[in-house]
Amino acid sequence: MIVLASKSLSRRAMLDAARIPYTSVPADLDERALETELAGHSPSDIALALARAKAVAVSRNMPGDLVLGSDSLVVVDGQRFDKPAGREDAARHLRSFSGRTMHLHSAAALARDGRIVWSHSDLSALKVRELSDDFIAWYLEQEWPEVAGCVGVFRIEALGPHLFETITGDQFTVLGMPLLAVLGALREQGVLPA
């Protein structure tokens, strides 16, 4: 069994579907402070650093357990977007994404006893179609508050596909965690049969 350092429903759903036994213990971490320290680093490096920090933070309190941390961030035209602060902020994000390509960086890390034993990041590109104000209002009426905790203001497993023209990259990365790489790492760690 592993420990998932997250309360993310999509990450839990991925592990459930892959039949990976786990317990969920969200990391108590000031992500914004860590992001401030990492200003100037690439989005991929920031996502990886956050995933590692979450895994390490939880693993320090769970001796011997293998802890999985993960994080995702969205960049559009060089600007990074965090989870929306509220519904109006979500609408602003969607207006900013309209007609542009969203780059979604998803990272994962495994830690044991406060030490990273593996980490990986991946990138997907999501071309957002032109979004009208009427569509944005309809979309948020349907999806709020479920998308409040989602970078990119979408759940690809729900109404999120309505936002996009094309998606390039791994489906699990789009869901918020590079699951195929995680499964490989879990096999290397002896958690899953090779």
Q: How would you sum up this structure, described in words?
A:
With 194 residues, this protein is an alpha/beta fold. 36% of the residues lie in helices and 26% in strands. Strand 1 (2-4), helix 1 and strand 2 form a beta-alpha-beta unit. It is globular, with a radius of gyration of 17 Å. The protein has one domain (2-188): Maf protein (Alpha-Beta Complex), CATH 3.90.950. The protein starts with a strand and ends in a 6-residue tail after the last helix. Strands 1, 2, 3, 4, 5, 6 and 7 form a seven-stranded mixed beta sheet that branches. It contains seven helices and seven strands; from the N terminus they run βαβααββαββαβαα.
Q: Uncertain spans, ≥5 residues at pLDDT below 50?
A: none
Q: How many domain modules?
A: 1
Residue share in helix: 25-40%
Average of per-residue pLDDT values: 96
Please state the CA-atom Rg, rounded to the nearest Å.
17 Å
Task: Measure the end-to-end span.
Answer: 16 Å
Just name the CATH architecture: Alpha-Beta Complex
CATH topology: Maf protein
Helix/strand-derived category reads alpha/beta
Order of helices and strands: EHEHHEEHEEHEHH
Largest sheet: 7 strands, mixed
Q: What is the class in the CATH system?
A: Alpha Beta
Silhouette: globular
Q: What characteristics describe this protein?
A:
194 residues, alpha/beta, Maf protein, seven-stranded mixed sheet, 7 helices, 7 strands, globular
